[in-house]
Design a protein that fits this description.
heterodimer; A: about 425 residues; alpha/beta; Immunoglobulin-like; Rossmann fold; 2 domains; eight-stranded mixed sheet; seven-stranded mixed sheet; 25 strands; B: about 425 residues; 6 helices; globular; BAAT_C (chain B); Bile acid-CoA:amino acid N-acyltransferase (chain B); Thio_Ohase/BAAT_N (chain B); AB_hydrolase_fold (chain B)
């Protein structure tokens, strides 16, 4: 372990920008170290419930006593290699199996404390940092509006970018976590979209354990969004993940006002709870209990149950994606341990092709897990979920997952701009 | 009437049990569950799904589990696939003499479970006892000179082949392997070397004179067969075992489980001579997706030219070696260490070694049927040990038998070669 005398110069840690959007990168640099000195960077964050998340990485200063995370490799810790944002996306909860989710997206940022330590601090938390800086990570931008929605049956929150608009509209659907998750919707709104984060169970007066879902609820949401004065007509997009993709894909299939749908790591069949649309009831596939595998940590792995989608009777129970009039983008993490998303997406795109349609596309990310979120969010490999006594394993390789989040976020915005934003000739 | 049987209901922890169920409906899907509470009230449990045959029977000796904590035909799967309720808890029997682990076996209708949680009472249940001593095995607390530990003797007058049992960097005293070895006819001394009684609280150096004292104590015991003893050792214990085998003629046979062929972190001393240790560059430790520390790549390259001075001169040893390697060991590159040691022996024209290398097995290879511990707290650090549940279990089953065969072959004169 190296313990060196205090260097003659002043150790300086700079982070640029010190306050910014959570999906934007920061540039971290240190000067004033001894040449070739080993140092450790530690990032720590407390979520809104006081849960601590931390990450650490060891770097070697160059001959001028500097470290620049944009070009220098981490030698060890939560990640290795050149990863300027590694300290953010490798954050881990002190209490295993917790997931990091920003709840208050408008009023407060996440505060990440970046500390620079002697490398001897790697396994010793008692030492003081040589320098530290608090970095703010915001989930909304100045001038944005958050409108709580309690119209008819609808429950959620509408995020409007600053300005008059109109803006392309998107409905944001999360998965089996339930409740209302807003941070992806609010971040998407900072990029010029009017986004409705829509809850559909376990929120407000929506049932905690519904017996049935009703696609007309989602249709109501689509019509509500389209009717808003700041939302562009005639069509909207849907961004759905995990269990949410059942509804996203159902909306794409049955509602002509949905012209662009993104499905992130979800099934193309209804799971566990039936979905009704007017007279039609879509029966769910369940995962038979023996189909659930157990990870050495005790976490549950749901991906292995294979619904045979090629079977005639099952084909009729999969969502009729061939009816979709808009475009569909499947974003898949190949290391998804919760859903065999790749199989589902390939089935859907194949089904489209068999019907002579060309409006489906897959973005497949090797190494990425189930919970693909906006960039720089930490990989959540496994976490507690309200319906289960054991944590669920989501999977993912830390570094590859981070790269997938960075790339896919750009693709999500491009896809919506391409299919939602009116070109001159369409106006 | 639904019946659940387990035979024998009380046995050594390393002995198999035959579990069966009868009186079920034909082709009924059922769930077997095993649970135990350790001495600190930590809960461990496992579940497996089976389908009854046409006459409503399930026999774990020949029927496959269809899901749960394991799949396939594994008669003892319920035991070795148990998982702690609190992540990173290792199952370890402390009081090996006075009480067994009590394992509850329960049988449920698969419909009565919702994702591992029972919604109704089990259809049948019973408790089995897993003992870490055979009847008649005695335990004596050892406080002779500097040595601290526990001596386990088989019943009878002996003399018995002597074995020194050494665990790793957790410190304290782990007795369960020594007590099981005694149940199979070995006089076993579970030896502590730090963090126990009046021994140093932290490990600072390895004093081989201390270990020689222990070896001599064992050899001088009236119930211990000479002229040499064996060592069964894991991890840091295996580093010490190898060191002893190099310097001490008293060591006839050394079982080295997932140990290094070099000295790391703490220097060794013997008769005033100091042997340097490879410092571990901690900045090369990697932290996995769940926050556990993976040390296996942080040793640099111990076999590299610049690190040769830390390697054990194993060719100087007169002992027989059994290297046991878990290929999924995430704490140490055990395979490279064993291969490095073997190469050194070969280069010196020696063939006093056997290598048992197990794909899928992790660092903590223990007596058979012990649940895989793939990660746990050790010295306040969350360590990833590695291993895949099913392959680790089969490595434990195979290696435990091989360890005993190896020790008998080399410690008991006139033993036929069974390996």
């Amino acid at each position: 372990m190296e313990t060196l005398p205090k260097p003659a110069g002043q150790v300086k840690l700079t982070v640029t920008p010190v306050s910014g959007l959570a999906d934007q990168p920061v540039h971290i640099r240190v000067t004033g170290l001894h040449p070739t000195q080993l140092v450790m960077f530690k990032a720590s964050l407390k979520d809104e419930r006081g849960n601590l998340f931390q990450s650490r990485a060891v770097y070697r200063a160059n001959s001028a006593g500097e470290v620049d995370l944009e070009q220098d490799p981490s030698l060890g810790g939560d990640y290795a290699g050149v990863h300027p944002m590694g300290l953010f996306w490798s954050l881990k909860p002190e209490k295993t199996f917790l997931r990091l989710i920003k709840r208050d997206v408008m009023n407060r940022p996440f505060q990440v404390t970046l500390g620079l330590y002697d490398s001897a601090s790697f396994l010793d938390d008692s030492r003081q940092p040589r320098a530290s800086q608090i970095v703010e990570r915001w989930f909304s931008c100045p001038g944005m509006q958050r409108v709580p929605i309690s119209e008819g049956r609808l429950r959620g929150a509408l995020f409007l970018p600053p300005g008059e608009g109109p803006f392309p509209g998107v409905i944001d659907l999360f998965g089996g976590i339930g409740g209302l998750v807003e941070f992806r919707a609010s971040l998407l709104a900072t990029h010029g979209f009017a986004v409705l984060a829509l809850a559909y169970f376990a929120y407000d007066d929506l049932p905690k354990y519904p017996m049935e879902f009703d696609l007309e609820y989602f249709e109501e949401a689509a019509n509500f969004l389209l009717a808003h004065s700041k939302v562009q007509k005639p069509g909207i997009g849907v961004l759905s993940a995990s269990k949410g993709t059942e509804f996203g894909l159902a909306m794409a299939s049955y509602l002509k006002q949905v012209v662009a749908t993104i499905c992130v790591n979800g099934p193309v069949t209804i799971s566990t709870i039936p979905l009704r649309y007017k007279d039609l009831v879509m029966k769910p596939f369940g995962v038979p209990a023996e189909g659930v595998h157990v990870h050495p940590t005790g976490g549950l792995i749901f991906r292995h149950h294979e619904t045979n989608l090629q079977e005639e009777q099952n084909q009729q129970r999969a969502l009729p994606v061939e009816k979709a009039q808009g475009h569909i983008l499947f974003i898949i993490g190949e290391n998804d341990e919760c859903v065999n998303s790749r199989r589902h997406a390939e089935y859907a795109v194949d089904r489209l092709k068999r019907h002579g349609k060309n409006n489906g596309r897959i973005l497949l990310y090797p190494g990425a897990g189930h919970l693909l979120e906006p960039p720089y969010g930490p990989l959540c490999f496994a976490s507690w979920n309200l319906s289960f006594p054991s944590p669920l394993v989501w999977g993912g390789d830390t570094i590859l997952h981070a790269a997938a989040q960075e790339h896919s976020w750009g693709e999500i915005q491009k896809f919506f701009r391409q299919h939602l934003v009116l070109s001159r000739s369409q106006l | 009437m639904i019946q659940l049987t387990a035979t024998p209901i009380s046995a050594l922890a390393d002995e198999p049990i035959h579990i069966q169920a009868t009186g079920l409906n034909p082709l009924q899907m059922v769930v077997f569950e095993a649970s135990l509470k350790d001495e600190k009230e930590n809960l461990f449990h496992s579940q497996a799904f089976y389908r009854a045959n046409e006459v409503g029977e399930v026999d774990l000796e020949c029927d496959p589990a269809l899901g749960g904590d394991y799949v396939g035909v594994h008669p003892m799967g319920l035991f070795w696939s148990m998982k702690p309720k609190k992540i990173m808890t290792r199952l370890s029997k402390r009081d090996v003499i006075n009480s067994p682990f009590q394992v509850q076996l329960k049988l449920y209708n698969s419909d009565d479970l919702h994702i591992r949680l029972p919604l109704a009472a089990p259809k049948a249940s019973l408790t089995v006892e897993r003992w870490y001593v055979a009847p008649g095995v005695t335990r004596t607390q050892v406080q002779e000179g500097r040595i601290r530990g526990a001596l386990f003797l088989p019943p009878g007058d002996g003399p018995f082949p002597g074995v020194l049992d050494l665990f790793g960097t957790g410190g304290g005293l782990m007795e369960f392997r020594a007590s099981l070895l005694a149940s199979h006819g070995f006089a076993s001394l579970a030896l502590a070397y730090f963090g126990y009684a009046d021994l140093p609280p932290q490990l600072e150096k390895i004093d081989l004179d201390y270990f020689e004292e222990a070896a001599n104590f064992l050899l001088s015991h009236p119930k211990v067969l000479g002229p040499g003893i064996g060592i069964v050792s894991l991890c840091k214990g295996a580093e010490i075992g190898l060191s002893m085998a190099v310097h001490l003629k008293q060591i006839t046979a050394a079982v080295l489980i997932n140990g290094p062929n070099f000295i790391f972190s703490h220097p060794h001393e013997y008769h005033g001579q100091v042997f340097q240790a490879l410092p571990i560059p901690l900045h090369l430790v990697s932290i996995n997706a769940l926050g556990l520390l993976e040390f296996c790549n942080s040793f640099g390259d111990p076999q590299a030219e610049g690190n040769r001075r830390f390697l054990f001169p194993i060719e100087k040893s007169q002992a027989q070696f059994l290297f046991i390697v878990g290929e999924e060991d995430k704490t140490l590159n055990s395979k490279a260490s064993a291969e490095g040691a073997i190469e050194q022996l070969r280069c010196n024209g020696k063939n006093n070694w056997t290598l048992l290398s197990y794909p899928g097995a992790g660092h903590l290879i223990e007596p058979c049927y012990a649940p895989l511990c793939s990660g746990s707290w050790c010295s306040n650090l969350p360590i990833l040990w590695g291993g895949e549940v099913i392959r680790h279990a089969s490595a434990q089953e195979h290696s435990w038998k091989e360890i005993q065969k190896f020790l008998r072959k080399h410690l008991i004169p006139g033993q036929p070669s069974l390996l």
